[in-house]
Amino acid sequence: MARNVVISGGGTGIGLAAAHAFVAGGDRVLLLGRRREVLEKAGVPGALTYAGDLGEPEVVRGVARFVAEEFGTVDVLVHSAGGNGTLEPASGSGDALDAVAHDWTVNFRINTLSAALLTEALKSRLAEPGGRVLFVSSIAAYRGSGSGAYGGAKAALHPYAHDLARDLGPRGITVNVVAPGFIEDTEFFGPEIAEARRERMIRDTSTGRAGTPGDVAGTLHWLASPAAGHVTSQVIQVNGGAERGR
């Protein structure tokens, strides 16, 4: 039976790969993202789209109304929206503390708040039993991210997921987190990544290669399957062993 799948950040990278995986399995998909043109060009057969900033409560209310009209019940909720806050517009202030406040606020908003608002808005619509909530975190939650802001924002998803797993478990709903490492073919590093940094991150792995969006999408798809029905409150590492270091 076809399931209703909602994917934030569904227009590019991991979210887009996940969308293709679910559609290939016969599921109905709703893609969410900030850029309407990206969602419309995503090329996911039969997918619905809804554009807006999920860090805004009013936008998320609109998403909830749209989901109620189009789907009714949500079988799988995938949180792939987020990203590198340093790629967002700068604070515009020359003050160092203003820059720190901006960096942390932006990263929290796009990586944590967006996921929490969408979850809370759709929580009552999750299928029971059998509903799935899946968060995309990062290796940075374990190894840091340079400034601390991005890694801290992703790490905040972990206790939230554990709390949700306890809350939703009696309804037959599982909640899990996937923590990717270096994934190529995403927008995380902007237009390009320095070759020296790319080589260093690949050396950190045990597999000797960068990850792909499909590596993460495959794990998300499995966690949403009946085979993972007794897996909940877990953080699954998809980083070629890089979280362990070299």
From TrEMBL:
Q: Which UniProt keywords apply?
A: Oxidoreductase
Single GO term (MF): oxidoreductase activity
Xref: InterPro entries: KR_dom (IPR057326), NAD(P)-bd_dom_sf (IPR036291), Sc_DH/Rdtase_CS (IPR020904), SDR_fam (IPR002347)
Q: Which Pfam families match?
A: adh_short_C2
Q: Where is the signal peptide?
A: none
> Organism's domain of life?
Bacteria
Q: Which Gene3D superfamilies match?
A: NAD(P)-binding Rossmann-like Domain
- The EC number(s) given in the record are 1.1.1.-
Task: Name the enzyme's class.
Answer: oxidoreductase
Q: Where is the Ketoreductase domain?
A: 3-186
Family, per entry: Belongs to the short-chain dehydrogenases/reductases (SDR) family.
Q: What is this protein called?
A: SDR family NAD(P)-dependent oxidoreductase
Organism in which the protein naturally occurs: Streptomyces hokutonensis
Q: Recite the lineage of the species.
A: Bacteria, Bacillati, Actinomycetota, Actinomycetes, Kitasatosporales
